[in-house]
Amino acid sequence: MFFVSDRQPYKSDLSDERWALIEPVIASWKAQHPSVSGHQGAYEMREIVNALLYQSRTGCQWDYLPHDLPPAGAVKYYFYKWRDDGTDQTIHDLLRRQVRESRGRKADPSLVVLDTQSLHAAAGVPAKTTGRDAAKKVPGRKRGLAVDVLGLVIAVVVLTASVHDNAAGIALLDTVAADTDTVHKALVDQGFKTAVIGHGQKVGIDVEVVERNPAASGVVPQPKRWVVEQVNGIMMLHRRLVRDYEHRPASAESRVYWAISDRMARMLTATSTPTWRGA
Fold this sequence. Notes:
Elements: H1 16-32, H2 45-58, H3 72-85, H4 87-102, E1 111-120, E2 131-133, E3 138-147, E4 153-160, H5 165-179, E5 185-188, H6 194-202, E6 206-209, H7 226-235, H8 249-268
Parallel strand pairs: 1-5, 5-6
Antiparallel strand pairs: 1-3, 2-3, 3-4
């Protein structure tokens, strides 16, 4: 079996403390999915996660993963398995609750902030899963986020860029309502219309449109709503999220969970996130 100590570390590697936060979930998953032959696997689960975080931070293609990390086939296998059975979100949600509680808040929020971001799709992304944002002139996909007041992700949806913000807002409200019964209010910008407000009433969430000050000019952060813009900026530290490279929207959503899980693990262990500015 290949061990982390057999190679030089990358800046994206999990520290012992950060690995300890997610190891119980991975170990439990592994115990529930034994190999038919009884084989334990040629690679440490920690190295599989390290490879995913390396790809998240650098944006490299599968076949360009360094040779001292597990091969692309092995990493893909676990990435897709964890995407499809929700293990990636389980890890993310457990870390989020720990961060909130460490900040003196309840495990789940009562208020979320919604926003969307249109991203260019990379070459090779299936055309049937992409579209063109008519307003922003962006061909690709639309990523919708629901975050709490700490800037922690509560829900993420990825749709074609051609859909209206209303569709993304409705999908986000449905996801938030399905995942938690504590959220009672959502703040949105003026891009969301009455359809989102009406849908919020159906799922028990009061949707408030935060109006822009007509006297303001340029970029002016809006109270509470600015946190979702901050999250969009933080995700740009992960080059895999700068453009949508994924063939399936579900994979794009999974990439967000891994990126934000990495951030929260660093928050819980008081370690900084290396940047690639100036690189």
